[in-house]
Structures are given as structure tokens and as C-alpha cells.
């Protein structure tokens, strides 16, 4: 592993694009993403094959609607039964870890990458990345942005258009910019949706 790539993955400042291993990994991700984005709705098996090649690891059941973009892919781990709608972007200069049964609405951005606030350091080309972790049974509404270093708990619903800048605990609905907990998910929610399911079946 090159020094800049090692710095990138360990949360230190790094220069993007000067590490040959990182450049090769980025080119690989762009090639696989481009091929994936050029597939049609009749290429389901090919799409799954390309995604499994693109990411570090995935569950058996994974579906992403093209177009989709990522920096490296190999720093992203996705669990079982994953779905992402159109125009999602995963910037995985640091690890992205996604649990089981996660749904992403259209234009969800998961961004581990950041730039220094200080203009002189930023203009020198240095940047950083902090890992993002998303738990099981999470629904992320469309146009949500998840920022570097955030951990999202299990059984979380994030309202569309949210900007997640801080960790979210288990079993909550969270919304807004900056994203904040709106309320807990309770037994009453389970009862309500069970009744709706039964009403559908009658």
C-alpha cells in the first residue's frame, strides 16, 4: 500500500491522485461504474455481477438503479438485501459499511471525503476521509447527504432532503438540515403498519 493511500484510509490528510495504487483503484471503479451504468433493464445478472466485482463485499441480494457513481468501490461493504434508487453517489475514500435491509432513495450521497477548513491547506491539495457506518433495517430518503465520520444505528428512517452531520441512535425517525431525531419508532408504529398490511390483504 502506498503512503498516500495508507494516509487516506487511516483518516490522515492525504494528496488525492498521486498514489499509483489509489489511481489504479479509482480507474477500476470508473470503468466498472461506466459499464454498469450502460447496462439495460434486461441485464439484471450482469448488473449484479458488476456490483459484486465493484464493492469490497456484498450480500447475495443487491440492486442499484443506474446511474451510480463511486470513488473506489473496494472500500465499501454492503450487507444482504440492499436497494439504492437512481443517482446515488458513494465517495468511499474511507470505508463505508452498510448493514442488512438498507434502502436508499434517489440521489442519496454517502460522502466519507472532506476538505480542510483552512484555505491554505485546502488549496495545497490535501484532503481527508472519515468512515461511515450504516446499521441494519435503515431507510434513507431521497436527496439525503451523509457526511464523513457518521454512524447511523439500526432501524432508522431518515427523511428526504436531510443532511446528516452527527451520529443517529437506533430506532428513530430523523429529519432536517442538520439532521436531528424527530421521534422514536415505537410499538404503535408496528401496530399501525401491521393493520395496513392486513387491510391490503382483505
TrEMBL record:
Pfam families for this protein: Hexapep, Mac
What Enzyme Commission number(s) apply to this enzyme? 2.3.1.-
Lineage summary: Bacteria, Bacillati, Bacillota, Bacilli, Lactobacillales
The Gene Ontology terms for molecular function here are: galactoside O-acetyltransferase activity
| Key words of the record | Acyltransferase, Repeat, Transferase
Among InterPro entries, the record links this protein to:
Hexapep, Hexapep_transf_CS, LacA-like, Mac_dom, Trimer_LpxA-like_sf
Question: Keyword Transmembrane helix: yes or no?
Answer: no
Record-linked PANTHER family: ACETYLTRANSFERASE YJL218W-RELATED, GALACTOSIDE O-ACETYLTRANSFERASE
**Name the record gives this protein:** Acetyltransferase
User: Which family, according to UniProt?
Assistant: Belongs to the transferase hexapeptide repeat family.
Specify the Maltose/galactoside acetyltransferase domain's residue ranges: 5-60
Amino acid at each position: 500500500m502506498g503512503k498516500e493511500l495508507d494516509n487516506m484510509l487511516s483518516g490522515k490528510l492525504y494528496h488525492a491522485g498521486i498514489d499509483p495504487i489509489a489511481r489504479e483503484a479509482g480507474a477500476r471503479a470508473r470503468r466498472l461504474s461506466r459499464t454498469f451504468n450502460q447496462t439495460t433493464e434486461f441485464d439484471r445478472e450482469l448488473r449484479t455481477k458488476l456490483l459484486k466485482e465493484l464493492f469490497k463485499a456484498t450480500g447475495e441480494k443487491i440492486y442499484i438503479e443506474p446511474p451510480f457513481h463511486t470513488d473506489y468501490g473496494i472500500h465499501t461493504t454492503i450487507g444482504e438485501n440492499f436497494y439504492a434508487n437512481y443517482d446515488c453517489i458513494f465517495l468511499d475514500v474511507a470505508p463505508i459499511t452498510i448493514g442488512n435491509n438498507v434502502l436508499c432513495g434517489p440521489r442519496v450521497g454517502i460522502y466519507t471525503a472532506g476538505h480542510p477548513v483552512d484555505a491554505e491547506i485546502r488549496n495545497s491539495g490535501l484532503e481527508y476521509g472519515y468512515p461511515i457506518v450504516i446499521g441494519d433495517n435503515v431507510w434513507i430518503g431521497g436527496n439525503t447527504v451523509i457526511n464523513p465520520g457518521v454512524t447511523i444505528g439500526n432501524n432508522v428512517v431518515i427523511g428526504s432532503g436531510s443532511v446528516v452531520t452527527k451520529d443517529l441512535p437506533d430506532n428513530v425517525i430523523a429529519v432536517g438540515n442538520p439532521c436531528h431525531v424527530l421521534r422514536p419508532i415505537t410499538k404503535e408504529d408496528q401496530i399501525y403498519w401491521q393493520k395496513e398490511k392486513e387491510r391490503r390483504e382483505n
